[in-house]
Each structure stands twice: as C-alpha cells, then as structure tokens.
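Student: Hello, beginner here. Can you help me understand the protein record under this note? Any guidance would be welcome.
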Amino acid sequence: MIKSLYVTLICLLFFTSSKAQNWAGGVDDEAFHFGFMFQYISSDYKIFKTTNWRNPYRDPENGNFITDSLYSLSSPSAKGFGIGFVSNIRLSENADIRFTPGLSFSDRYIDYNYLDPNKFKQQAVQTTLVDLPIGIKVKSDRRNNFRAYLLAGGKYSMDIISKKKTDDSGFALLEKFVKNNKGYLSYEVGVGFDFYFEFFKLSPELKLSNSVGNVLKAENHPYSSPLDKLYLHSIQFSLFFE
C-alpha cells in the first residue's frame, strides 16, 4: 500500500508542477479557512511488563492457577480509519496553526503467548475516539502548484465507546477485557505536501503520534495483571481537502 501511495504522490507532483496556472491560490491567503479530511490509521502498543509477568495467574478467591505461564506479550499493528474537519489560522506566508478535530475508529490488540501454544489469547481493545489535535504547520515557499510542509503539535483523545461494550463486571476472570483510560494526551510530528488544483487544495500527510503517558486502566485479572504500562503508537496517513 505504501508503494502505491508514493506512486500517486509522484504523479500528483508531476501533474501540478507542469501547470502554469496559480490554482487555489486564495485559500492560503485567507486569515482563516476550513476543510475536511480522511485518515488511514495503523496503531499498536509499546508494552511495559510487570516484574512477574510470566507467572501463572492465581484466582484470588480459591488460590488456584487458572492460566499457564506466559512466554511472550506483543502488540500487532491494527488498522483503522478516521474522518474530521480542518480549521486553519494563517500566521504568515510560511506558517499556520492547524486544529483538526476528528472521529477515529481503531481497535488495538495484545497477544498473549503461553508456554502451551494451544492456550494463545488475543485481547482486542475497542475504541471510538474523539481526537482534538492542534499543531504548527511550517511550509516551504510555493513552487507553481506545490509546496511541502512539516507539522508538530499535541492531541487530546477521548474514548466515547459505550460503557455497555466494555462492562465486564459479571464476566468470569478468563473473559475479562483490557481497558484504556478514557482520555489521554499525545505528541505528534508529521510531513506533508500541498497540491493546488483549480478549485481546492489537496494535502496528503504522514504523521506519527505517541501517547505522552500510560494509557492502561490497571485491573486485577489474567490479562491486565501482567501489564505495567501501555503506550500507544500510531501512524496516520491523511488526505486533507481545503
């Protein structure tokens, strides 16, 4: 998929650079303008384990072991998508403030590999997030209908998934869920390109996002107890239309 995106960007660059018209020039001169976006998201956890994470889990009521010893813990990449809006404030010819609130849908996974391979378990952490990112966009000078830019900023994310989907209060210990905090902060850095067309500007952007602190909601059950901290890492490919 990444190779296809590169080919698309090269074609767009060739197309826009070959045009003499100063298309969509007005949008960058406005003090304030809006747009919308679509996102592809790939996310995973950076896992910090407790000191005794390998130990079998002991039922606190009867003292019996109910899991095997753990062999490894890992977090495979999970795909998701998002939609949102763009609010852009012009600071100068080469700098903007960007506020890009959006709604993202992206599950995350944790794989529990036990010494007995038949007891493999994958935990899915379901999330529906309201993202509130704000950042500084530093732009190169415009060359015909193209310019590049760098982006840096922060983001507050709030999980709005229904409590019914995460309520495991009546579940057996081996059916419990791993949960995240309802809200957390992240820092973001990215790179992108502005392509100017006749009536709009298209901006493909690649951005890295990492949570500032631990996103794990600690609980006492077989799947949360081996985890000390979870840090969220995301790669986002966005298309902005302005």
Remarks:
- Residues 1-7, 9-20 have pLDDT under 50 and may be disordered.
- The radius of gyration is 22 Å.
